[in-house]
Amino acid sequence: MTDNNHAITEELAVVAPIGTKGTEEHELPPSLRNNMELCLQILREVLNEFDPKLLNMFDEVRTDAVEASAEHFAGFLDDSDHGNEGLRKAVEIIDAMNLHDAQLMARAFTTYFHLANLCEENHRVSVLRQRESEVDENQAVDPVNELTVVYHQLITEMGPAKAKALLEKLEFHPVFTAHPTEARRKAVEGKIRRIAELLEVRPLLGGSEKRENYRRLFNEIDALFRTSPIEHRKPTPVEEANTIIDIFDSTLFDTIPQVYRRFDDWLLGDQAGLVEPACPAFFHPGSWIGSDRDGNPNVTAKVSRQVARNFSDHVIAALEDATRTVGKNLTMDSEATPASEELRLLWGRQKEMSERLTQNADQLSTKEPHRAVMLVMAYRLHYTIARDTDLMYHS
Fold it and tell me: Which of 120, 16, 116, 28 is nearest to 69 (CA)?
């Protein structure tokens, strides 16, 4: 075998089992075990449809690896034991493969591991939600929200004033970096995300909806297996930076405000959303991707400016979309919900800034001042991306 084949052999020799042979597997919670069995069943169907020979090799390697894992967890052998029969047979099967078959096997197990991780993540989320549902809203602290626990302790030790002053200094500054060994294609990420969503809703379905869910899972897992896990060309620094945009869209933009709101709900109670927020905006992400000028010669000043512009424009566009959505829903008319003095003053300032924007908003929102004001905000965010100095926000 070539060096590439040996590398594949070493990767596939350590297999996380999904099945019923391993001693440790009998301890899996039912929901986790059911999802793992479902994903394995679908993956086996996909492999059989692709090539029955590949399925046979996959089953053999997996069975041998599970056998080795079962013996390990049962205490029959330790990590230094190289005479493990199951592991030996798995390595022999892989050693006998040609490069093409070894690559297909690697792709099959890559898909397998993605599915195993998804099942575990799905179970973890369900456990956290169950724990959340059991929390008494009248407790002094929210035990599943560590920020409230810490802040309550600060109040006890320092008093409310000092605790609030310290809270306002809170800052969380994660810095995203480019790690090629951990990078996944956007096409792969999208499929993994959709499979996770299908697994999440599956327990709520029945009848034809459950069968449709199975078909969609099959389609996504089939596509995941058939999609190359790596790009056919090396991404540019700008393309690498786009991975952060994907994380922003799929997680950060919705999750971080939820963290802030959860803290306010605990601290402010019924006043949350009606008064100024108590939780500071402590999340300040950064990125080295496209801006680290020390390591990558392809990262030039021009690239760094382009990456920064892409980040800025994308975040502002997300705010524009959210602002427009809120505005479209604020359809209270001026008779049923009269505008406050602050709102009238804001509308006056907006008219003074741009008659064109306010006239357009007023035409779309006749006698709906709350909606009109929000639409002007959305317009201004749009022109901030366009760099219109007259209409954009400057800070």
Answer: 16
